[in-house]
Amino acid sequence: MVGLQYDCLQNPLGAVRLTFEKAVASGSDPATFNGKDWGATTIFRDFLIDKGCLSQVPILSSESISWLKPNSLVRFRGMIQDMLGNEFYVGAYKDGSIWRTNKFMDVSQFPMCSSSDMQIWERRLLYCVPVPGQNLWVDYSSKPLINQYENLTILQKEKRQREDDSAIDHMDLSECVGSLCNKKMREGGSIADSSQQQEPETVGTFSITHKMTDFDKNYLPCLVKIYDSPESEMKLNDIVEFVGIFTFGAELEKGGFDEVYDGLCEDALVHRPSAKIPCLHCFIHRKLATDELLSSSFTPEPKSHLVKEIRKSLLGHLTSVIGNDGLAAHFMLLHLLSKVHARVDSVAVGKLSLNLTSFNEESISVFGNRISVAVKKLLPFTHHIPLTVEYLNSTSLAPRKDYQTDRLETAVLQLAEGSHITIDETQLKAGTLNSTGVENAMLLKNLIELQKVDYDFKYYKMEMAADVQLLVLSEVKSNILPADIVLPFQPSSVCESEPVPLEALEAWRWYLATLRSTAHSIEPEMQKVVEDDLVAARQADRSLGSHDFSRWLTVGRLISASFGETCLSLDHWEMVKELERLRRERLK
């Protein structure tokens, strides 16, 4: 039996070519291939998912880019920061009497001539970045694969050297150079000999990182090219894992194209980032949930007794972190489990922002730092905002559209779902807000109240839904940031908490990531109990309104989730009422 003519990891373009040639040989018309798979994506889906080989694919990062081979198969995990529109390219063309394809490529591998047989297709461009606020323990590295890939690279270089020595005698160099100059396709590059199955390398023996001059080497963006996928599958700020062919260093340049390519590239020149950045031609992609970002091997079944044990230990840890304030620790736990799970009109159902008050200069220096460190160790994406008049007046909080570059400029509040923000309001002193400061204050207010951020498109504002946990630390109840829960902070100890073992941290991370997405319901008999209690509470205190009752129901849902349960029980509803009673006592 003849083996495969390609290597899905090291030579994915071999699979693309083989399946294309097979489809054409079977009688399929290449003109019908636009926007559909002729079998290439199916091969990779089978290799990666059905055969379970996804873990063999290295992850593209600022570390791995120094050893990854161009035109090999890689993964990239990141947030969609900008959607750059569509790009036209020559998808299929005739090389003499032979049909060839440029799909999943930056450059044509064979000479092309403008003809009526040339097929113009479209692909979407996504500008993706590492998730803002990503903490170091969220490890995307591919270190175990480095040695494996270095060995493969040495073997393949030796093989290519033998092939090159054999083929050089049959190559007309002047004809090749002339063809390259006259038929240069998109973004620059070299033309491969038609007998080669491996895409030619573009970086030789030098590290790719020496070309990375236009952005932070520790913050690696990626231009992802999407094929044959509905636009509705992905949206701005989604965290997505892309698997596809890695290319680097190709850059669009005006001039030097045949007339047919000048028209194709004009639009791409407007949208494409100016920096030379890695590019990924995507075969498959999937949106990632928070629990899929955990690098831990701790993935147990969420059984009731285990969940309760983890809950008890995490609650004890939070209590220790915030000075043995048990009530604050309970609300902190619920806050860390909160998530927007539905939207009814303008109400984001499920959010639970928390405002801890009674901080002063001394206590914020101790407990503010402890809380920030604890949250960073528990949640994958965290941010800290030191709220001052100067900060509000000078910082860009909302993303803005730059129509000269046709790019969306990122800002502080362009965040992925599940992000956490700690806002230190103790530094806010009397002062005057300018127009930017007023706008920023309103942006923060809308985020904490509505879970929405207004993106600035110069001529209009566009509301973008968010799902961000907000914790406010302040001296008194915040007027700028009206949180769902306001609680005076009352620590009784300043002792340092004990060091936390890694196993405990991994269990707590799993707990928070898994249980925040737990389904929830209220049985009819329990619903009657809740309704009666809400009516009685309203009769006892006329100041209570729908906002308060909605908060109670949210707390009830989160208490149930914290125990790993999906239905509100009478015991948990009693806990809701007791927590509310204790909170209101502190506010007196």
What does this structure look like?
- With 588 residues, this protein is α/β, with parallel strands linked by helices.
- The protein contains 14 helices and 17 strands.
- The protein has helices spanning 12-25, 40-50, 146-167, 173-182, 259-271, 304-321, 326-337, 361-378, 389-394, 435-450, 502-515, 524-540, 546-562, 570-587; strands spanning 73-95, 98-101, 119-129, 222-226, 239-247, 279-287, 342-344, 347-349, 354-357, 382-386, 400-402, 407-409, 419-424, 452-456, 461-465, 468-473, 485-488.
- The strands form five sheets. Strands 1-3-4-6-5 form a five-stranded mixed beta barrel.
- A hairpin with a 4-residue loop joins strand 14 (452-456) and strand 15 (461-465).
- Helix 6 (304-321) packs across helix 7.
- The relative contact order is 0.11.
- Residues 142-160, 162-214, 250-262 and 265-270 have low confidence and may be disordered.
Quick structural summary:
By secondary structure, this protein is of the alpha/beta class.
First-to-last CA distance:
82 Å
Strands, total number = 17
Mean pLDDT: 82
Which structural class matches the secondary elements? alpha/beta
Estimate the global geometry from the Cα principal axes: elongated
- Low-confidence parts lasting 5 or more residues at pLDDT below 50? 142-160, 162-214, 250-262, 265-270
Instruction: Please estimate the helix content.
Output: 25-40%
Strand order of the largest sheet: 1-3-4-6-5
* Percent of sequence in beta strands: 15-25%
Our Rg estimate from Cα atoms comes to 28 Å
Biggest beta sheet attributes? 5 strands, mixed, barrel
Number of helices: 14
